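U., I forgot to send this yesterday:
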Amino acid sequence: MKYPNSGKVYEKPNVSASNRGMSLEEDINKTNRYYLNEDIAVIYKKPTPVTIVKVDYPKRSAAKIVEAYFKLPSTTDYNGIYMGKYIDFEAKECESATSFPFSSIHAHQIQHLRDVIKHGAIAFIILRMTHYDEDFLIKANDFIQFYDAGKRKSLPYRWITENGFLIPKTYTKPCDYLLIVKNVFEL
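Result:
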């Protein structure tokens, strides 16, 4: 992009597929730090369990993992506690303007959401529709019901806007999902 009279050319940064989803994660992590610092909630990103197979030691102080694999399929991205209630949720980004493909969420993650709901957890999905720059909270029960119906291979954008809850954004809380959780789950 070239701005008039500036002589400077600005290019859009190249974002690889491997970094897709990172901006939502960064926004949730920033919001979670705010929640923790303000003593509102304690919610953390779950680490992905990996087994390290091979490490290269080019220097004593610079170990480099060369080969590793996932120990177990991961469950969901985040969990914690808010107002005495256990919270568990998955965060996904979607570039499509029309729908969220079910292929973007794994069957074991859906099963995990079923399991935590069965035991009384507050469970949901945060879905960022990047085309519209909108974040939605979707109750896991509603998502699972639509998924189980098996009529589609994706969640339509229209369904998302009608059944999901638009998450407000502020500078200190770029993804203020607990505001929605408090109202939707009646805490």
